[in-house]
Specification:
This protein is mainly alpha-helical. Helix content is about 70%, strand content about 0%.
């Protein structure tokens, strides 16, 4: 029998270390993917991921009801927005980054592996479209980007997105 998020959270609050590990295992990949899309930087996303689960650990007692996933993504969204604000204040250039080339964050793109029946020109078009989508997402304000990423990549409902973003369903629809 698989433990529910609520039972794992309750077990974590009682000191069960494996329960928290199970929650991280269950949601870690989707949270990291969300934070990577929000921050547009894998290393930054890993830092935000740690901060997210640090807050989840510290604030587990505040979880009410059985809405762990939306509560978790609410924390991740706040962490991502806080991280974006910090980055705006501290403009840092990596010494490892090549400044003379266009860095699209290719690792963020989930490009399908071309099979032998796929036309190479179609694959090029698909990669270019993915890059365009990433650039368009990157150009949006944090709230709109969060709404789109939550909807299309995390597949949350309007109601869940409204809870995560702490706004009305109408506002979510407007952002969409």
């Amino acid at each position: 029998m698989q433990n529910t998020d609520k039972s794992l959270t309750d077990a974590h609050l009682k000191g069960d270390r494996t329960a928290f590990g199970e929650l991280v295992s269950r949601y870690g990949d989707s949270v990291l993917g969300y934070l990577t899309r929000m921050s547009r930087d894998r290393e930054q996303a890993e830092d935000l991921f740690q901060e997210t689960f640090k807050r989840v650990h510290a604030k587990a007692h505040t979880l009410r009801g059985n809405q762990f996933k939306s509560w978790l993504f609410t924390i991740a969204t706040h962490v991502a927005i806080d991280g974006a604000r910090r980055r705006k204040r501290l403009q840092v250039v990596s010494l490892n980054r090549k400044l003379d080339c266009d860095d699209d964050g290719q690792e963020l793109c989930e490009v399908a592996v071309a099979d032998s029946s796929c036309d190479p020109s179609q694959e090029v078009v698909r990669v270019e479209q993915a890059q365009e989508v990433r650039r368009a997402l990157a150009s949006l304000p944090e709230r709109q980007r969060a709404t789109l990423v939550l909807a299309y990549y995390q597949q949350l409902t309007y109601k869940e997105m409204a809870e995560v973003l702490d706004c009305s369903i109408g506002t979510v629809k407007t952002h969409m």
